[in-house]
Every structure is written in C-alpha cells, then in structure tokens.
Amino acid sequence: MFSSPAPRATPRKSVFRGRGDTASVSRGTPSIASASEREPLTPSHRSSRLNALKRAASPTSTAGETARTARYEEGGERVFLAKDQRGEIYSLGGLPREVQQIVKNSVDMIRNTVSGQVYPASGYALVTTSTMCIAWNYARSSPTVYVFHPPPSSRPYPAQSPPPMIAALQHAGSGEPGVILVSTSGEVRFWENMSLALSNVDRYQGVQLDLGADDYADKIWAVESNTYLITTTSSLAFRLFITSHSGRQTPTVTPLMRPGGMFGRASPVIFSLGEDKQGITAVAADGGRLWVLAKRTAQKWQLGSEDQKYVQDVDLYDVLGNGMFPGRWSTGEVELEINDLVTLAPGYLASLVSTIDQGATSSTSSSRVSHAIVILSSSARNGSLAVSRVIPMSYSPEPDSRSLETPRLIIPAESTTAFVRFASSVLMVSLVEGDSYEETITLRDSKRNAFIGAGHVRSVNLKRPTPPLVLMPASGGLLGVETFSPPVSARGLSSSAAATARLKSKMEQAVFFGDRSENPLSFDVLGSGAGGDVAAAAEAVSAEILSCTSAHMPGIYELRPQLADRLARLKDLVGYIRRNGLLVKLPQASRRTLSRDGEKAKAAVDLWDYQNRLMDQMHSRSPQSLLSDSIMLFMRQTEVREDEDPVRHFFRHKSQFMDRLLDVVYSTFRAAIEALGGGRAGALERSAWVLEANRIFIIVVRAAAQYREDSVQAYEMDRRSPSIEQWTAAAPLMASLEDLYYTTETLIADRTRDLGSAIDAPPTAVGDVKAQRAVQNSLKNQMAELAAALCNNMEDKLRATSRRHIEDGGEEQEGIALQRKWAEMRPRVIRPLVTIDRISHAYDLAEHHNDYETLVWLANHPIAGAAGGVVKLQEYIERFGEEFAFVLYQWYIDQGQQHALLSQDEVYGGLVTKFFAQRDYPELAWLHHLACRRYSPAAAALGVVDQREVGLDAKNIISSIGKLAAVAEMKIKGTSEARRQALVDFDDQLDLIHVQETLRSTLIASPTTRRLSPQDALAEYLDKNLTLLSSRPAFREMMVDLARRLVDGEALGIEGLVDVLTLKDNKGEEGRGDAAVALDRLRGDMVSCSCSTTLPEGRKQVALLSIWRRVFIRDDWMLISNTAGKSEERIQALLRQTSTYATLRAISTLHGFPQSYILSPYTSAQPPLLAELTARFPDRTLQQIEALMADHEEEIRVLERYIEQGGLESRVKEVAELVKRDQGAGVGMGAGVGAGEEDEQGDVEM
Predict the structure, then answer these.
(1) Which of 230, 536, 610, 1101 gets the highest tally of CB atoms within 10 A of its CB?
(2) Closest listed residue to residue 137, CA positions, set 219, 76, 54
(3) Is the separation of the CB atoms in 605 and 725 below 8 Å?
(4) How far, in whole angstroms, is CA 356 from its chain's centroid?
C-alpha cells in the first residue's frame, strides 16, 4: 500500500562515498560512468555493462530519501511530496550525481543552458548541455548512467552561449532505447542501442542535414516511435525516419518540401512570412497528420510511410485573436503570443496563448501577462481551425530571464487535466467544462531551482505502471504527478467554497509534506492572492490534526511520538499562515480557536506522559486510577472496539474533548470524596484523592497556559481584548477549579488541626511525619497553582465578556456580574496564600493581575510585609503609577492612617494632589494643599469642608482659615474675579456665623438667668418670647428644636436661621431688625458662587414668603387701622413701632438689596407646597409635615384677615412712604438691624 507522510525523523544520510570523476571515450562516442578505472572499450567487450558501476545512493539528501523509504522503484513504496483529492506528487528518485554536477554548473541557466527530457513509457531520462548528454533509467533503484558527447560541429554556433545538445531517445521495443544526437551544423548520429554502442565506438549511423550557411539545427520532436522531426533556426523541417532492414535499424532524413505551384519547384522553405522564419515553436502529431507551428502560422502536413505531403497553412495568430477577443482584435489593443500547440483528441488541438490586454480597465491588468488554453476544432471539410473554448488561467508567474523552453503545454493521453510548465512552477488546469480547478506546483527555491524538463505518457496502453506526467526540476529529483477526477463532495460547490477547499488543501500539503527539507515543492501562497475563507480552511485543518482524522496523518504506532507529531504540525500550520501573510485575514476568534487546538494537543502530550508513568502502578478505583477511570467512563459514550485500548484511543483520537474529560474527572473525584469514611484513614485517603485531582487539572491548565504563552507572538492574539474566552475559562471548568481550590484550602487547614502544626514545617524529618509534610507541601503548591489558574482564566473571561458587550452589544448585566465576581475572587483566592507560606506566589499573582488592593494589603500585612513592605510600596508606586497610588491612599484613609497619606515623600506630591482632585476628601486635601502652598485649592477645599461641618465654632475656624488662604492667594497671584468672589464667599460665611453666634448669645444671655445653664436659660427665654405661637404648635416645636441645636453649638442652615429669627416674638429693640437680618442672609445665599450652599428656588421662595408673612402679622393691624381719636403724629408713631417699619427701614440701608425680595401682604399670602416641606424635612412623618402645613395656613389666615379687615395693603404702603420721609429727614431708625452696611441708602417701594 502507499505510504503516508514520513514521520518527523531526521532523514538518513547516505553512508556511501561519492564516486570518482566520470570518464568518457574520445571522438564523441558514448561512455559509461564508472567508479573504477575504465577498461578499454573493444568490439569484443560485448558484456561491458557488467563492468559498469550501478549507481549507489546519493551522498546528498534527495526528495526520495526519508527515514522510511530511500527511493521509488516499480512496485516499491511511494514517497509522497504532495497529495490531495485532485492529485498526488511523489518522488521517482534523485538525479544522478553526474547530472547534479552539470546542473550545478548551470545554476544561472543563462550562460550555461541545460535541458532535460523524460520518457515515462520506458523509464528513461536524459539531461543535455552544450557539451554533454547524460541518460539513465530512473525506474531502477541503482541505474546505469550513460554519458554522451555531441557530434563535432563543422562550424561554430553564432551565439555566445550555445544551446543544449539536440538529443532524443528512440524506443523500438521493450529493450534499451537507441540514441539520437544532432549537432548544430546538422550532423545526425544514431545508435540503435545504448549498450551495444559501448562495444564499438563506430557503430553509429550518420546522416547529414542539408543546411544553409546561416542555418543551424535547433530542436528535435518525437512524432511517432520511429519518426522524428528536426527543425532549424530558419524554420526548416527534416523528417528523421528510423526503418528496419534485415534486423538493423537505419535512419533516413527527408526535408519537408512545400510545392511551388503548378510550374514551380518544391522548396524546403515551408513558411513564407518573415516572422515565421525564426524557428519552429511547436509540433503536434495526430496519427498521420502533423501540425507545425511557427510564430504565427500553423502548417498541416500529411505523413505517409515513405513521404510527407503539405496540406495547408492556417493563420493561427488571427484565428486565436478573433476567437478570444471578438470585436476587439482588430483594434490592436491586445498583444498575443502563441507558446505551444498540442494534440488534444481527433479533430481537436489545444494551444497555449499569452496575452497582454492594453484595453483592460485597471493599470495592473493592462501590463500583466495573462495565459489561457484555447481549444481548437479542425473542420473536416476544409481543415480550417476555429476556437471552440477558451480556458483562462488566473495564475501568472513573474518574468524569468533564464534560458528555458517555457511556457509549454502538456496534456497526457486521455487526461482531463492540462499542465502548463513555467520556469519554476507547473500549473494544473482542468479541461472539463464547468470545472474551475486550477492548482500550482511550485518549487521551493524558485530563484535557483527550475523545471528543466518534463515528460508525459502518449498512450494509455503501457505494459508498466507509470505516472502520466514526470517533472524534472534542477534539484530535488524526478517527480511523478497523477491527477484524479473531482470527488462527489467537490461537485456543485460555489466558487467561494471551492476556493476555500483549495486553500485548505494547500495548508494540508504544507503541514504534512512541506516540513521535510528535501521536498523541492513549495506550498506558499501570496496573502493578497489567497482565495477562499482563510479562517474556515485553517480551522478545518487544525481540527483534523487534533482529532487525528486527516487522511494525511502518518501512521505512528507509539503514542508519545504521535502526540508530539500532531503538536508539531499544529505549530507548522500557524507558521505557514504567518509566512504567507494570511494572519491578517484571520479574525481574533479564529486565532484563539487555532491556539485552543494547540493547547489541547500540548495538554494531551503532558497528560499522557503523566498517565504513562502511572500505568504499572494503578489499581482500579484508586486515586492513581482517577484519570484512566475517567477516560473509561468518557469512552463508554463512544464506539470503541473491544480489542482497542480506550485510554490510548482517547489520546489518539479524542484529544479535542479534553475539557469534557476534565468534567468527568471532577465528577468522578467528587463521587469518590463523598464515599469516603471518617477517621484518620479517611482523612489520609481524602488527601490522596485531592492531590490526584489537582494534578490532573494542573497538568492540563499549565500545559495550555504554557503553549499560549510560548505562541502568543505566533498567533498575535489580542490578549487585552479577546474576542472569545479561552477554553480553560469555560464555566464548568472554572467551577471545578474553584471548588478544587477551596477544597484544598479546607483540607490543608483540617490536616494542620488533625495532625498538628508540625506537618507545616519543611519536610526534613523521617518516617510518617516526613511523608505527611511532603503531602502538605504538595497541597500548598497545588493551591498556589490553582489560584494562578483561577485568576488567569477569570481575567480572560472578563475581558472577553467586556469586548462582547462593547462590540457585539452583549448583555451588560453579564459583564457587571462578572466584574463583581472577579473583584470578589481576587482577594479571596490570593490572600489565603499568605497563610500557607506562599507569600511570593501571592505577590506575583497580585502584580500580574493588577490587584492593587491585595498588593497594599500584602505590603502592610504583619507577616507578608514584614520584610520590605515599605520598599515594595514605593516600588509599586513607581511601577504602576497613580492606579496603585490611589488604592494605597484610599487604604490609608480607610484604616485611619491619614498621617501616612499626608506625610508622603514630596516627590509623590503630584500624585497626592491628583488623588484629592479625584476623590472627595476635602477635610484632608486642604492640609495637603497648604503644605504645598497651593492656597486657592486649599481655600476651595476648606469651603467644601465648611459646608459639611455642622459645628458653629468649627465652621468659624474653618472659614477663618479659608479666608486667610484666599487672601494669601490674592497677595501671591493678584486679584481676579474668581479670587475676589472666593474671598466674598468666606466673608459672607463668617457674617452668617457671626449672626448665629450673636443669636445664640441672645437666646441664653437674659440678665435674670446668667447663673442658669444654657439649656435652662434657653427654656426661660423661649417661654417669654414664643407667645405668638400658641395657635401654631408645630412651629413652636420646630422653633424649640432649632434654638436648642443652636445653643448646643450646631450651625443652622439658612432655612433654620430664618425660622429662629422670625418665629420668636421679637419684642423690644433687640429683635425688631431680625427679619431684615434673615432677608439679608437669604439674599447672600442667592448670590453665593457655591452651588452646594444655595437653596433650591422653590424652597428659597418659601423662606422669603415666610419672612414677610411673619413681619406683617407681627403687629395688630386692626388696632393700628382704628384711627378714630388719634392724631396724625400718634398714627405715625404707631406705624414706626411696627415690625414692617423696622424691616423696611433696615433693608433700605442694605447695599444692592434686590427689589424683588420686597413682597406685599397680598403676595405673602401664598402657601408652600407639600413637596417643598417634604424636601426640607425628609426625616419627618407625613403627619408632622401636615402639621407644619397647617401652621403655615394659620399664618395665612391671620394675614388675610388683616388684608381684608385692617386694610393692610394700604397701611403697608403708608409705612413705605413713611420710611422714605424719615430717611430724607434723618429721623432715627431706632434699633439697628445688626447686619449690612449703611454707606448707601435705597428707596423702599411696595
């Protein structure tokens, strides 16, 4: 049977030594190469072949030499160099050393030309140069090598580099062939048999061609077994006919003569056009008919047994041009060259044509040489030729300057595949209509290697099996090529599917056959020109390698080499993809899929190595048999022959199910653990089971991680944003790893409790203690490795989920849940490593996965951070920057170590500043800013601290320091609007604090209660000054609460301050201006630049309405409005004593007080909304809110009674006019308002 690709062993080097230089007989007669001294050749030496040295194995590696087979011979084992569903290429043996030498000397193939011919029907081949012809029987394992020298030429060849010798082999029967040599001057020599020629150097038969002085023999064409056509440089043709007379073959030469008309003489000049007189391009024989092609014209001749008859001329150039480019041929846009003409079938010819279409749309196509095979049909009536079908070829090689007869068209007998031989490639093209198959056979070293010859079978009735095509590269040995009909599965494929199938085949050839250095073929493709789906093709090849289902897999009996071979081929696959520029066409998901297959192959290798070591130590259902038992359980679900080893079968054919095997291992382990008994024996056995389960999982995930890490550059995977999660991060496997981790952690603690802390010491003791210490140490190491596996896979899973959400619109909640789980898992998995003395592992994991919280925890841990924790913190700040620094600073705050934060080295001052800019810790930030002399940020931070501080004394200190910082900023950097406003804000805040301090003093400073406590004094004050709230109990309760808080040192908000200033009776001069103070503070809140201190507009309006409503209802307007019996002076005196007068008079002295803040009684009668009260008192119940609303409504009822019955609207206007008159007359205001400035006076309008 045929062999599969050879395994990856180093090819054997030949142990035979090279032979000496070949000798040759003088006078241009044939010689035979010999390893010993040549004996004289005499006519009686009839058995001289016995002295000829049979060719030994080549001392250099050839395409046919591998570790399994040395060479192909009839009936021998084939060494395949390429193979797929459409064809196969195999080695037919290397070139003889003599041939290798002359080819090596003709390496440029420009100055030293070389040509080869192969005769598959007889198994012979020959190679010629201008000075030598070598022939040998390649079908034999140790062929005899024949060396011939050309006949002497009567005149020198005009060119600087003479062409190769004109030679051919003549096969008259089944014996050795005869030899035909032709000199450029036209001397023909014929030897009937190679071996017989050696017995007498003069036994050749000679014939001389009648050539002109400027004409030279050029080529020889085999027409039939005994008929040849010799053509010249001026397009003359001579028929060489080998006839048999009296048992001896005799050559005769007859020129082809073209008749000259009715009275003209026949002439050997058969072509009339000048361009056709530059040599013959091709000769095609079809039975007794012969087609001779010049550059433009094809001539048809009829060959008889003794003569030849000219039939007709066909302008093939125009036939092809009109047939290939109808309607455009006459425009001259297309350049055409006829490269070859061969017989296809009776009445049909095939021509190889090269074209350049200047009218092509793209600039690239217009200058590119295109090739096509044109099928020509011959008319039976007049013999004319017509284009039947054009088969275009997409492949076009780069121009080659070497002197090679290319391109040439080869169509073996009854073949449906045509071969086009270029310099360093051969194109296979299907001739079947509708089949677009096109494949290229390319030489690996195309710059130094080339196809110097080829041969094909001309008849299917051969007695010996032979490939239909044999190729001869300059190096690499002879190559046999066979083609097959397309399989059923390939029929009806779309163009894209067919292209993908071809690309997959190319990848397979490279992986299974291209790994051997002696293979002369290249399977590379250009990245931009590779058709088909690269991802689909690569994934299919990778899957077949992993599952060992590829038809090209070598049959390696031993399992370990077979697993290693698969792993190496998977690496070769990605190497091929990279080398050909195909990686850019692979999406990230496909790259990870290919890497997954390699990871599983590596895991299979390592897992089998472990299993193989246990093979002779296992007992069924023991911890050591966990893997084999799990494989047996898994394989029961598949069809396995009874005589087949299930464990080996899994590793050989089921490695792709490695993840599913781990599921079975885990479930088997869990079942075994649950079945264990108690006691010391059960605990020890539990340790053995956990150790074994951990080993299996760690071997797999470690192998996968190692392969992934080693090949990250090869696959160029985006590890920061993977498209799919790695297979070891699948949910079932992650759950198993997590459970094994916690099981191991618990087991370690249980063993320490049950066996004593001595087992946690290094295993230096003897006996059972040493064994248990070793077990404990192994468990700790496994726990550390499980932690690493969990972290690596969880992080990858999170990254894949994040990318899926961003790019593919995945479920956002999935990513959030996974992020939360990852944040919880990291410390829970890494930090316990400290307790098992795996501190360095903990640091490594935390560093690798950027777990800055754990790094901070470790560095400050009393054990983990005892040695160099502070140094590590500085190292991490330098290494990770602000991400780590911010976590560290937050930890300092959470642990109450603010001093450590504020005492950071000044080189990290910028980081601390940035931390405070992003984190809301103004109570610490201002200290840092002041230390760094950054006064403006310090003032801003103090402003925020002041807003949050509730203590009145503390607010006074904070605002004072803030004002000093603002002043310092202005002194250093000058005045700006922002700096001025900051200073104004602090002044307003200090004014507000001063108001509250003054108010607090008022509440507890009654002369009769100076010896009482502040709370008792407050109670006495409230009893005397809340008489107007007897009908408004909710307001009274609120007033008492606010007053007590103020006395206790708590700073009130603007709404609370307004209530305390306006709800009390405000009797006497000391309270008459409190309403104006409340208005001034409310106005200050409105113009404040700090948005966080400003009340919402609705609540601000409620406070404003409440102030004026309470001002208006403070006095008895029914009494004041009763003017009967009162003088004008008395009435004005009463108006001056009202709270309305005092308030209007006070605010008239406030600079810039807005007119919109002065309300009329009618406007003040608007009630607040329930929502506004709820927003102010969020902690109060609905019943309490409703009670407050009722008191507001009570105030409004009193106000409305004064408006309706007391004429309050007109009285208030009178008060406003009175204020204007008093201001103009300089009448004293009475008690001051205690706030504001009097540098300007304003008018009061109602």
Answers:
(1) 230
(2) 54
(3) no
(4) 40
